[in-house]
Amino acid sequence: MSTDPSGRSRRLDRGPSAAHRINHRIRAPQIRVLLDDQQLGVMTTPDALRLAHEHGLDLVEISPLATPPVCRIVDYGRFKYDQAKQRPRPRVVETKEMVFRPKTDDHDLEFKVRHIRRFLEDGHRVRLVIVFRGRELAHPRTGKLVVDRVVERSADLAHVEADARLEGRRMTALIAPKRRQADFGRTFND
Prior knowledge:
Elements: E1 2-3, E2 9-10, E3 30-35, E4 38-44, H1 45-55, E5 58-63, E6 70-74, H2 76-86, E7 95-100, H3 106-121, E8 125-131, H4 140-153, E9 158-167, E10 170-177
Parallel strand pairs: 3-6, 7-8
Antiparallel strand pairs: 1-2, 3-4, 5-6, 8-10, 9-10
């Protein structure tokens, strides 16, 4: 870090990230130049910079370890955008939670099951929570029946990952989407 005359600190390298050198940051005396996926050949760096300036674009070093280094004449902003689009994004699996009561009515149950099915289709796990109040805790079997009904109605999309367990006044179970045949060859980064 350095300070400018106004006393504010500023970064010394205000240019692009260290991933790619552009324009005057390219140190090699001779480089191989590409323009629109067409090789222009090996030329000196000042000549390549002049050519890039004539086209109104930037000279970007894309392969610094090659001999001579390979540079492309492109719009740097567009180049960075294309690079970001090519990077695989890690697939995030969330755990959604759906809360029921032991006396949840059939219509409400169906409504919540529709949401659970949508979560499962999107690849998320779902935690089923049955909340007991007062004397309902004396009959945990009614809560287990609610969990069984939900699991039965989503059995074509999900499997039970963690069976129903009573913890205090809450009974929880975890269901996860079944792996489709097409998913077997894929990783989580696909």
